[in-house]
Amino acid sequence: MQTSHRRRTAVLAVAFAFAAAALSPAAEPSPSPAQADNPIIQTIYTADPAPLVHNGRVYLYTGHDEDGSTWFTMREWRVWSSEDMVNWTDHGSPLNIDTFSWARQDAWAGQAVERNGKFYWYVPVVNDATGRMAIGVAVADNPTGPFRDALGRPLVENGEIDPSVFIDTDGQAYLYWGNPNLWYVKLNADMTSYSGGVNRIPLTTQGFGVRPGGTDRPTLYEEGPWVYKRGSLYYMVFAAQCCSEHIAYSTAPGPTGPWTYRGTVMPTQGSSFTNHPGVIDYKGSSYFFYHNGALPGGGGFTRSVAVERFTYNADGTIPIINMTTAGPPQVGTLNPFTRQEAETIAWANGVETERSSEGGMNVGWIENGDWIKVEGAAFGSGARTFTARVASATAGGRIEVRLDGPNGPLVGTCTVPGTGGWQVWTNVSCPVSGATGTRDLHLKFTGGGGYLFNVNSWQFTA
Ligand code: FUB
Fold first, then answer.
1. Can you identify the CATH homologous superfamily of domain 39-310?
2. Nearest protein CA to atom 1 of ligand 1, as residue
3. What is the spatial distance between Cα 44 and Cα 66, in angstroms, rounded to a whole number?
4. Which residues are the active-site residues?
5. CATH topology for the 340-461 domain
6. Number of neighbouring beta carbons within 10 Å of residue 349
7. Residue 28: pLDDT above 50?
């Protein structure tokens, strides 16, 4: 797997060589040290967030902007999860263009939902037979997949994009989508068929605001609908007024309208000319997900998903939400005395992730000085040892266990040996002294030149 990175780097080099000189493709993300938590993911570019709360955990479904993209070059979707809104676990890519035998390209903005123990992920892709955008539906038995094509054909196709799925309190499910129009179907209980035909939502200025500039689109509605219900009020949050987009919203007394325009949610910010909303409630707070171009090399085609906490106004309206680098506060703490996946990360500096031979993902492409931050580890009265599951096809290196920052207090150092392969795993342990209270854990990787080792998981003992 390590070689795939080198291959990817080589592909990038070829792409660079062929790129027109006027175009300057973005480099792969390699964020400089920061204590921010936004964007959520630093190891790849992500776009089009679709959060889902399930069994006390937030699952975040995203697209993946390829490194160096100069268009919406997207071949796969990705899944992440968190139970504290700051440390996010990488679940890799359980769905890609090839999952749909009939699809050609464009793994663009989708949304997943759970019904009767199955997870349905609605996504737009180009139908190879027609060359038009169509909506496919994939199904899985758990939120991280693997997902399979539920139908073997599009669920619906009219050349438009960005499906948003919503199950009403009476059990009726709806699928909304559209750019430049806005559509919905009433999904049947199987979630893979619909009744009542394809319905067009009238884009009136009363419903979706007035677009300045007298374009052929009279309303602010552009794309990316996100529909949900709060109390008895239905919300449609959407990307507005291309380009650059901002986020706006409308409300209605029912799932099919009539919609009333309510105003801006997030102004145009963040060096990406698109934006894309996702809204959830989780553990007593409300969260707004979006994307921007905030990572190094970021921009309109190399985007990154971020999140903010917000509070509804007393009358149910949504306040203006601005992009921040801090993101929301941690909900609770992380338990360092249970096995933690190495790919559970608040901030990654220099590393990437890949599929692990032991299941899930591992952290890889570790070079001297790289580090990962795990926020709010609750050490209590103290940790005595640190154990990590590691592999190395080279000579290994060291894991420096530090607190508060990548150069913060050093409380332990584990030596990682060569193990004979990047997926040949062994445990290394070392004594720890001074890790008490709730602290931001930093695992800093040191050693010689080149790639040092991989880390699959870690755990402290009390
Ligand atoms: O990511 C590709 C497209 O860009 C999405 O489908 C739109 O919502 C916009 O974010």
1. Glycosyl hydrolase domain; family 43 (2.115.10.20)
2. 108
3. 8
4. 48, 222
5. Jelly Rolls (2.60.120)
6. 21
7. no
